[in-house]
């Protein structure tokens, strides 16, 4: 398939979504030649002996060492005998065995590991015996048993029996660090991997060493020490080093890197034995980061997910959502058979009943044929489908339904955005990558909360900040804690004024911070990242393009959902055909028609999601084919629901029962990611193919769509993954003219009447999303929803910090406790979709809209905490 | 010729209100500073190098050489940190010095800071000794008032701030990198070296960490000259040092003498063993140095000779134990100390001291097993040289040396409690009747 192979690139032109080129060979650098166990090896200067040994296939036992964490030298398990040349050049033995995890290889050094040095072997046996004296022998009930570095290395590098007959140190079991993370202190070998991870990588120090000697332990922070308001988690939790209650989005990584069973997750604890699990590599479906994961399943049930190891993308880390939110795929409301609705003669809607595929396809085809006659059919694939599935939606719309009315954007969107995507994003894969961020001197985030909306991007940015002093700038309404942890600079922009701020980043700006930003972005290698939320601020994307041209910074688009970038490449946009071909370009249409074997393609640009919804509602569209769309995610959910009710014919492709399926005429069940193979495309445009983990009867969307087209009398030719890949290979990318850059003017900021404010909003990573269903432990680590306003606004409304604030629109009211924040006056921030704060559903509002503020009823505050 | 005392630091400890600025100046204090400020800093470093002054904190590293390790000035800050976290069992020289003559230390700090180009120095005092902390604070106040600290010291254009910081009660913070972490407000645990403090110490800046006595010896060298200093002591262990006699001696206390003096000479000065009893064992430099016995009475107490005899000069903390002492019980107390003070960072020290303590307690109760002595030795072998810092190494010294000289007492620990073999009341300074008799004590363990 094109998406991974390099061969296709050579034979069939530029592939549709080319895989990343293998990393360029590192520039020549200083090397060091030395020997390990008599084997000569040459490594880059600065390489640790333990790493060099790994490259030779020599395994030195270790606990505290982790390649992505700074050396600690704490466990002393990796001791080796070292001979090094002295000042006189004579090689002499170092008096003490050395920890190979902290020792840099030196020229002429002779390292003898446990394989060739009795001293090293004895030292390692000695340390292992000491590690085990206080370690409980509870392996039979320990989750780590069977995959435990301590267990394994005790077998390979330990004594057969212990001489310890004395009293072990014990602790009460276990401590809940959060609702998800549990700590059994007596199992801990104090390697400090978890504390170093939280300090060096995630930057949210929620656990640390306490006490000393044999009583030293990993501990949580005293909840009684600091009382304060802030981003508190939903569940019970201790405070972190900054005094804030711990709500880490990356805490699950500490469980995975724990070399013993000290840290466990409530979700997996006591659920399975490692040797019963079958592991399948996967890619996380939760965001556009394409994190490599490992899906561990047992007899057809996914038991847990772990981070996969991919240095180019997520290194070895994933977010807690990637790790813990997977039960949605096997939820009780899974749809297992096709369903059709029989409309009784009385004209009422009738009930859905199970049907065979043949019957369902027949019913769907008949309904869609009628709908095409009645004005046409719109296609809403949703933002979470794979590249292959998106391609099938795109092709179905053009070939079988004869329309460009297809849009995967199930979120607030704009025509400016569509033009931006066509101009700047489609077909420009791997233009900006994670690796570019590592070395970028400055990164400007526009409408993008990295920690909430792009977890891995956040970690990679933080690494760049910590290691290379990358400067992070953010155009947003307020400085989030995530931005603080990136040592970021806020370029304050009230919602709607983003374009103004972006255009203001010039060398002769009045504000020093804007001048400084202009200087930073003019540095070679600087990057501007715009989030999907930039679409709702008129002119912001246009201004971002102008800024990139003006400053020379590279520009990339970072959407939230896993299917967004793949959809752009596959052509599930009203103005874009697959491969970035503009619908408006006759050549592109001819090109594609030839590949698809049809006479012509619809030439008129299609409708966007909002227009499709409106057209379905007013009857100008006769039917809809809807994929994974939740009406609550649309800008006006009430309108969407109404459209789904009123549309003449509704076909739903869904994994689980939803608001769409309950209104559909035909429901075609499709496979969740774990039950199908496919490819997600990251925000960088990097294809992330993944295999099918579970044996399943469920069909991927493209197979269902192939069957549906077949029933419509069209051979879509996408019946198998191989067929899709063959066609994608044949199709290739577009080398013709691109769409023009958007030049939308910024809207005038609305006048804010008294008692009103402009809404700012973005999603929390952990919120009320349906893909987090069935995960109570995870939900407990979500941030507690709060309404943020400035001190001035709070005073104007008459609410104190922590008191309930009612945010209203005509359609409803959200009441949340206030968190007074340093932000512009007359702006209120709400989490988009958290429990008690369904902004789109309740307020029918998006960022930049006016909402009313009033003190909330005292009991209303509890709504927000539900 | 018998060695005589060489009081330099302790010269005016017996003066009226010896700790005041007035007394210190009346005894020639701050002459060294005045002379030093007229010299080039580099010449001061050379002078200290020439004097052969070696670190008085235990390791004996040449002080001048340590100063010379600092990289060339780059315009950023450089720090002097005085290690006054004296916590080793038996070691009691810096605390009396800071009590009796704190200005000695402060003058040394100013001269040393001037020599190394430091404008902010720190004294990290053991937190438990509040009285010393208070006295130091007062002494620093006096020095500021006199213009010895602050801006433009004595009109030389040289500025120095001095901060006295009290530790929070951890022996590990006497380890220089743990001390720096603690001073920075972090958890006191030793840092990975390299980088060494000379390159990246306090706040990742070039830093000299010196012992109190080393720094306090500097003014004398500046006044008397390197040759004056070198005429004391031996060729490679020059100068004067405080010898702290404690335990079963007639007159315990500080005896400042040239390095190379023997315990026999010191014991003579101290009035001999208490009650005329026989010397059983002693530590030459605190509990972390392997013990000596009566056969080592004539070992010159300098770095080389003590090392050659199988121990370390350490902090010259001479703890004297007479024949009434159970070596098993003494070692048990020391090991309990190390177990309590191990910082927990590395496995050998954390787990090793935890285990050693249990074995030693078993032997003290007379409940050891035949395998325990070999186990102790093997355990010490697995700790020594495997630990992250010297704390773990130090913890093994008393065990291995005690077994070397008194193996039979450890063997007795397999059947007889230490308090039966060595009834504690026999070690008492005065006659007393224990609340429980020896037999009753033994009965507890039976």
From TrEMBL, chain A:
SMART domains the record matches: NADH-G_4Fe-4S_3
Domain 4Fe-4S His(Cys)3-ligated-type: 119-158
Domain 4Fe-4S Mo/W bis-MGD-type, residue spans: 277-333
An example molecular function term from Gene Ontology annotations: 4 iron, 4 sulfur cluster binding
SUPFAM superfamilies: 2Fe-2S ferredoxin-like, 4Fe-4S ferredoxins, ADC-like, Formate dehydrogenase/DMSO reductase, domains 1-3
CDD domains in the cross-refs: fer2
Residue span of region Disordered: 1-26
One Pfam family of this chain: NADH-G_4Fe-4S_3
Keywords: 2Fe-2S, 4Fe-4S, Iron, Iron-sulfur, Metal-binding, NAD, Translocase
InterPro entries: 2Fe-2S_ferredoxin-like_sf, 2Fe-2S_ferredoxin-type, Asp_de-COase-like_dom_sf, Mopterin_OxRdtase, Mopterin_OxRdtase_4Fe-4S_dom, NADH_UbQ_OxRdtase_75kDa_su_CS, NADH_UbQ_OxRdtase_ferredoxin, NADH_UbQ_OxRdtase_Gsu_4Fe4S-bd
Entry similarity comment: Belongs to the complex I 75 kDa subunit family.
PANTHER family to which the protein is assigned, alphabetical: NADH-QUINONE OXIDOREDUCTASE SUBUNIT G (PTHR43105:SF12), RESPIRATORY NITRATE REDUCTASE (PTHR43105)
Record protein name field: NADH-quinone oxidoreductase, chain G
Biological source species: Cellulomonas gilvus (strain ATCC 13127 / NRRL B-14078)
From TrEMBL, chain B:
Record's signal peptide: none
Domain of life, source organism: Bacteria
Cofactor or coenzyme needed: FMN; [4Fe-4S] cluster
A Pfam family annotated for this UniProt entry: Complex1_51K
Key word Cytoplasm present: no
Main EC class the enzyme belongs to: translocase
Iron is among the record's keywords: yes
Reactions catalysed: a quinone + NADH + 5 H(+)(in) = a quinol + NAD(+) + 4 H(+)(out)
InterPro entries tied to this protein: ComplexI_51kDa_subunit, NADH-UbQ_OxRdtase_51kDa_CS, NADH-UbQ_OxRdtase_suF, Nuo51_FMN-bd, Nuo51_FMN-bd_sf, Nuop51_4Fe4S-bd, Nuop51_4Fe4S-bd_sf, Soluble_ligand-bd
EC number(s) from the headed UniProt entry: 7.1.1.-
Annotated keywords: 4Fe-4S, Flavoprotein, FMN, Iron, Iron-sulfur, Metal-binding, NAD, Oxidoreductase, Quinone, Translocase
GO biological process: cellular respiration
Residue ranges of every copy of the NADH-ubiquinone oxidoreductase 51kDa subunit iron-sulphur binding domain listed in the record: 328-373
GO MF annotation terms: 4 iron, 4 sulfur cluster binding; FMN binding; metal ion binding; NAD binding; NADH dehydrogenase (ubiquinone) activity; NADH dehydrogenase activity; quinone binding
Family designation: Belongs to the complex I 51 kDa subunit family.
Function summary: NDH-1 shuttles electrons from NADH, via FMN and iron-sulfur (Fe-S) centers, to quinones in the respiratory chain.
Name of the featured protein: NADH-quinone oxidoreductase subunit F
Organism encoding this protein: Cellulomonas gilvus (strain ATCC 13127 / NRRL B-14078)
Phylogenetic lineage: Bacteria, Bacillati, Actinomycetota, Actinomycetes, Micrococcales
């Amino acid at each position: 398939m094109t998406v991974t192979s390099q061969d296709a690139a050579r034979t069939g032109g530029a592939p549709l979504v080319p895989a990343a080129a293998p990393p360029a060979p590192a520039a020549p650098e200083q090397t060091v030649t030395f020997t390990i166990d008599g084997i000569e090896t040459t490594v880059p200067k600065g390489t640790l002996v333990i790493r060099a040994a790994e490259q030779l296939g020599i395994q030195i036992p270790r606990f505290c060492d982790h390649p992505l964490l700074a050396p600690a030298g704490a466990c002393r398990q990796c001791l080796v005998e070292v001979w090094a040349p002295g000042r006189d050049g004579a090689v002499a033995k170092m008096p003490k065995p050395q920890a190979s995890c902290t020792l840099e290889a030196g020229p002429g050094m002779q390292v003898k590991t446990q394989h060739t040095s009795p001293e090293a072997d004895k030292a390692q046996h000695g340390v292992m015996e000491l590690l085990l004296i206080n370690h409980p022998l509870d392996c039979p009930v320990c989750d780590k048993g069977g995959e435990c570095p301590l267990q394994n290395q005790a077998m390979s590098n330990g004594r057969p029996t212990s001489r310890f007959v004395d009293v072990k140190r014990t602790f009460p079991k276990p401590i809940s660090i959060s609702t998800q993370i549990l700590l059994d202190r007596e199992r801990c070998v104090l390697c400090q991997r978890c504390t170093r991870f939280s300090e060096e990588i995630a930057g949210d120090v929620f656990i640390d060493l306490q006490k000393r000697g044999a009583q030293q332990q990993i501990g949580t922070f005293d909840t009684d020490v600091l009382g304060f308001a802030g981003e508190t988690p939903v569940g019970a939790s201790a405070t972190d080093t900054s005094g804030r209650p711990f709500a880490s989005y990356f805490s699950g990584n500490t469980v995975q890197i724990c070399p013993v069973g000290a840290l466990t997750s409530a979700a997996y604890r006591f659920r399975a034995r490692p040797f019963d699990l079958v592991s399948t590599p996967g890619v996380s479906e939760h965001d556009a980061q394409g994190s490599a994961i490992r899906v561990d399943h047992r007899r057809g049930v996914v038991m847990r997910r772990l981070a996969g190891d991919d240095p180019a993308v997520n290194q070895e880390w994933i977010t807690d959502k990637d790790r813990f939110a997977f039960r949605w795929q096997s939820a009780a409301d899974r749809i297992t058979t096709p369903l059709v609705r029989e409309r009784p003669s009385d004209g009422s809607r009738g009930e859905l009943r199970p049907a065979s595929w043949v019957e369902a396809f027949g019913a769907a085809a008949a309904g869609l044929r009628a709908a095409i006659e009645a004005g046409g059919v719109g296609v809403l694939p949703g933002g979470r489908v794979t590249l292959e599935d998106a391609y099938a939606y795109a092709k179905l719309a053009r070939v079988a339904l004869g329309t460009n009315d297809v849009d995967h954007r199930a979120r607030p969107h704009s025509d400016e955005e569509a033009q931006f995507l066509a101009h700047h994003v489609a077909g420009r894969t791997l233009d900006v990558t994670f690796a570019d961020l590592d070395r970028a001197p400055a990164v400007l985030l526009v409408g993008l909360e990295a920690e909430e909306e792009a977890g891995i991007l956040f970690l990679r940015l933080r690494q760049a900040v910590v290691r290379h002093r990358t400067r992070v700038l953010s155009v947003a309404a307020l400085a989030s804690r995530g931005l603080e942890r990136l040592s970021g600079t806020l370029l304050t922009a009230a919602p709607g004024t983003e374009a103004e701020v972006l255009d203001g980043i010039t060398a002769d700006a009045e504000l020093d911070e804007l001048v400084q930003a202009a200087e930073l972005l003019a540095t070679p290698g600087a990057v501007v990242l715009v989030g999907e939320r930039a679409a709702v601020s008129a002119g912001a994307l246009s201004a971002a393009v102008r800024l990139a041209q003006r400053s020379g910074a590279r520009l990339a688009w970072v959407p939230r959902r896993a299917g967004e970038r793949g959809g752009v490449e596959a052509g599930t946009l009203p103005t874009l055909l697959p491969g970035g071909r503009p619908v408006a370009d006759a050549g592109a249409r001819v090109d594609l028609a030839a590949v698809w074997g049809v006479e012509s393609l619809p030439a008129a640009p299609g409708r966007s999601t909002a227009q499709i919804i409106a057209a379905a509602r007013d009857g100008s569209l006769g039917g809809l084919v809807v994929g994974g769309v939740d009406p609550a995610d649309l800008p006006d959910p009430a309108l969407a629901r109404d459209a789904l009710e009123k549309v003449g014919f509704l076909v739903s492709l869904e994994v689980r029962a939803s608001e769409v399926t309950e209104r559909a005429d035909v429901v075609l069940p499709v496979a969740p990611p774990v039950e199908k193979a496919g490819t997600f495309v990251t925000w960088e445009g990097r294809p992330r193919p993944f295999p099918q983990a579970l044996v399943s009867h469920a069909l991927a969307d493209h197979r269902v769509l192939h069957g549906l087209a077949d029933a419509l009398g069209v051979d879509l030719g996408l019946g198998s993954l191989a067929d899709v890949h063959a066609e994608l290979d044949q199709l290739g990318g577009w080398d013709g003219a691109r769409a023009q850059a958007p030049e939308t003017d910024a809207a005038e900021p609305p006048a804010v009447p008294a008692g009103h404010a402009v809404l700012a909003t973005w999603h929390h990573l952990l919120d009320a999303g349906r893909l987090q269903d069935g995960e109570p432990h995870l939900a407990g680590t979500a941030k507690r929803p709060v309404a943020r306003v400035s001190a001035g606004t709070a005073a104007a409304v008459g609410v104190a910090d922590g008191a309930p604030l009612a945010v209203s629109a005509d359609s409803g009211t959200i009441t949340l406790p206030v968190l007074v924040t340093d932000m512009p006056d007359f702006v209120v921030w709400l989490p988009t979709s958290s429990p008690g704060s369904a902004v789109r559903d309740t307020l029918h509002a998006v960022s930049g809209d006016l909402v009313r503020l009033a003190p909330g009823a005292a009991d209303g505050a509890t709504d927000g905490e539900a | 010729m018998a060695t005589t005392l060489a009081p330099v630091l302790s010269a005016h400890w017996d003066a009226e209100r010896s700790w005041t600025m007035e007394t210190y100046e009346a005894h020639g204090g701050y002459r060294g500073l005045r002379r030093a400020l007229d010299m080039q800093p580099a010449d001061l470093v050379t002078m200290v190098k020439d004097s052969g002054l070696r670190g008085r904190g235990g390791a004996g590293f040449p002080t001048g050489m340590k100063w010379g390790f600092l990289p060339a000035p780059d315009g950023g800050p450089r720090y002097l940190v005085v290690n006054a976290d004296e916590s080793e069992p038996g070691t009691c020289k810096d605390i009396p010095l800071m009590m009796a003559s704190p200005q000695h230390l402060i003058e040394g700090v100013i001269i040393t800071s001037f020599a190394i180009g430091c404008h902010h120095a720190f004294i990290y005092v053991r937190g438990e000794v509040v009285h010393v902390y208070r006295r130091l604070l007062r002494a620093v106040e006096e020095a500021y008032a006199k213009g010895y600290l602050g801006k433009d010291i004595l009109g030389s254009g040289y500025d120095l701030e001095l901060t006295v910081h009290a530790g929070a009660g951890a022996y590990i913070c006497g380890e220089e990198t743990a001390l720096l972490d603690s001073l920075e407000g972090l958890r006191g645990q030793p840092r990975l070296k390299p980088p060494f403090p000379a390159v990246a110490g306090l706040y990742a800046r070039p830093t000299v960490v010196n012992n109190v006595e080393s720094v306090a010896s500097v003014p004398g060298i500046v006044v008397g000259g390197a040759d004056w200093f070198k005429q004391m002591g031996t060729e490679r262990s020059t100068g004067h040092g405080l010898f702290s006699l404690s335990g079963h001696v007639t007159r315990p206390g500080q005896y400042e003498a040239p390095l190379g003096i023997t315990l026999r000479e010191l014991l003579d000065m101290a009035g001999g063993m208490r009650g005329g009893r026989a010397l059983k064992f002693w530590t030459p430099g605190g509990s972390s140095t392997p013990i000596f016995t009566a056969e080592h009475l004539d070992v010159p107490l300098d770095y080389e000779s003590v090392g050659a005899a199988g121990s370390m000069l350490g902090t010259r903390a001479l703890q004297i134990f007479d024949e009434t002492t159970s070596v098993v019980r003494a070692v048990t107390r020391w090991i309990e100390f190390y177990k309590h003070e191990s910082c927990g960072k590395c496995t050998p020290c954390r787990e090793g001291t935890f285990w050693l303590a249990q074995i030693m307690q078993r032997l003290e109760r007379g409940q050891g097993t035949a395998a325990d002595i070999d186990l102790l030795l093997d355990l010490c072998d697995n700790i020594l040289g495997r630990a992250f810092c010297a704390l773990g190494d130090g913890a093994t010294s008393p065990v291995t040396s005690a077994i070397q000289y008194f193996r039979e007492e450890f063997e007795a620990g397999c059947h007889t409690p230490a308090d039966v073999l060595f009834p504690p009341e026999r070690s008492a300074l005065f006659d007393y009747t224990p609340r429980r008799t020896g037999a009753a004590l033994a009965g507890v363990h039976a």
